[in-house]
Structures are given as C-alpha cells and as structure tokens.
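Handout, section B. The chain below has 113 residues.
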Amino acid sequence: PYPLGGIFRMWAEDSAVIIPNKKSIIQAGAPPMANPMGQQVPLFACMEIAQEDENGKPVLPLFFELEDAQNAVSQAVSFDGGKAEDFEVVGLNLPEAVSLLTNAKQETTAFQF
C-alpha cells in the first residue's frame, strides 16, 4: 500500500510531483506517445466489487493498473458468481477520486488504495 493521502496532500501543496506510469495513462486513454509528466494519475475501479470494512461500511478498492482491477473483478466473480465481462472497470483520476471521497456523505462508500 502507498501512503497516497500524504502524497496527494504534498502534491496539492506543491511540495511534490506525482508522475503516473506510462502504461497506466495509456490504459486510461492517453495516446501511446503521451508524456507521463503533467498527466493526471489514473485509477481504475469496478463499482460492483465494493467490500465492507470492519465496521460494515462499504469500501471501493482503487487500482493503479487496469490489470489489477480486472484481476480483482475476476476474483470477486470466482467468490460470488457471475461473469467478469458483465462488470465494468471504470477510470478515475486521483483528484477526482479524492474529491468524491472528501465530498461524500458519511454513509457512502469509501475508497481503498
């Protein structure tokens, strides 16, 4: 796990630069020749595979790589049934995910990196 909250805070305060890996930005839709410098950090999630934390609150896992999200979907399907191709993996960027989390109501889903 990464201390992403602290890293994001440093980025927001202009104390750090977050550079995504090239593979992830291409998986998120950037052209193959895109330079990762200055790109948003893509995150991948499947809304249907939210889990519960120890308090019973739903937590949505977020992944830096598309394959990791797809593997999580496959694992969820192997436990709960269904077809992996029926589950959609969506892309979010890091500021978007943080904004959703910080503006969420107390009873809504949280994110897990």
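Note. Helices lie at 4-12, 22-27, 66-80, 94-102. Compare this with the example in section A.
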